[in-house]
Design goal:
Blueprint: H1 2-37, H2 51-56, H3 60-96, H4 102-133, H5 136-148
Helix pairs in contact: 1-3, 3-4
Length: 182
Amino acid sequence: MLRKIAPWLIVLSVGLNLAFIGIWAGRAVACRRAQQDSCGHAGKQGEITCPLHRKLGTNQEQWKKIEPRLAAFQRDSRLVCQEIGRKRAELIDLLAAPQVDRQAIAAKQEEVLAGQRRVQQLVIDQLLAERELLTPQQQKALFDLLRERGGCPAHGPMMMNFGESEGAGCSAYGKCAVVSGN
């Protein structure tokens, strides 16, 4: 009986591993593209280059205060995202190892989750700081957008595209940012 089932179990295992690696690779590529498409595109001096902030009606005075903090946030979140990517790759290596070490897998999973929590905290800190600079109407518009565009289920609500048109590719709060508690 076991000889009949064993080949099917191997095929199932290989299939699941390939699916896992494929999903991970897709997310890694999406994250890299997101870094290239994020806000802060080169523009004229003082120009509001972020579609989200243009949509919110951010004025020049607000943008002068928001832009440097947003750039620092994007840099910091990108570094943590890269670290999470490395931890995920290490997790895949542990999962693919001939001998499964469940304790090592659990520990690596905790490291990935800790990185996600750091990104989540960066997002929350950025939103709270930016909130202080926005008018009540802009705050309402921002949080309505966050509620309305819950993002795709695999990435959490902070993964949305705030461009003026589909495909504009701007997420002011970082493509790797997750606020959903994943």
